[in-house]
Amino acid sequence: MTSKKTGAGPPGEHLVKELKWVHGRLRKDLRVLRELAAQIGSNASPALVRTKIRTLRTQSPLWQLRVNCLKYCRFVHGHHGGEDVNLFPALRRSNPALVPTVKRLEADHRKISDLLDQVEALARVLGDGSGTDTRERLVAAIDELSRRLLEHLDFEEKSISPTLRTWTTWPG
């Protein structure tokens, strides 16, 4: 996230817009992954799965950066890592009342990280002689990731946007 003010609106509004843009990309691609998971659960062929992933690359800014199912998980890891290191300490400094909220967001990041690792591990073995059990576990892992990640994104946007909007510079 940048600290320069761009465009009209309340101070810090650009930070909220950037956060919501990234979250919107995550939500869009997560919907596609869930559709893919449903197809995997219905015994879609590995070739169809690979074709769907290639299609994702051509339709989404995140996927255009050579992001596939495994890269998507790494992107979310990176996004959350950046928030943990940069955004959350700044939120604590600028609004101490947000400390419990930031603690919850950090706990969410740890749980989502575990789920991302699970999805990555299952995606790696999909099609390598894996059976129905692997497909079912991948579908369940994507469903759980989806539920947790969407809940987290909504909570984060609602809880920190008011504070972000007050920022005129990055809190030091």
Can you walk me through this structure?
The protein has 6 helices and no strands. With 172 residues, the protein is an all-alpha fold. The N terminus is likely disordered.
N- to C-terminal distance: 15 Å
Average predicted confidence as pLDDT: 80
Structural class: mainly alpha
How many helices does DSSP assign? 6
Overall morphology: elongated
SSE order, one letter for each helix or strand: HHHHHH
Amount of beta strand: under 5%
In total, the number of strands is: 0
Helical content band: over 70%
Q: Low-confidence segments, ≥5 residues, pLDDT <50?
A: 1-6, 60-67
Biggest β-sheet description: none
Whole-number radius of gyration? Answer: 18 Å
Topology:
Layout lengths: L12 H29 L4 H14 L1 H4 L4 H26 L4 H27 L6 H33 L8
Helix pairs in contact: 1-2, 1-6, 4-5, 5-6
Summarize it.
The chain is mostly helical.
Features:
single chain, elongated, disordered N terminus, 172 residues, mainly alpha, 6 helices
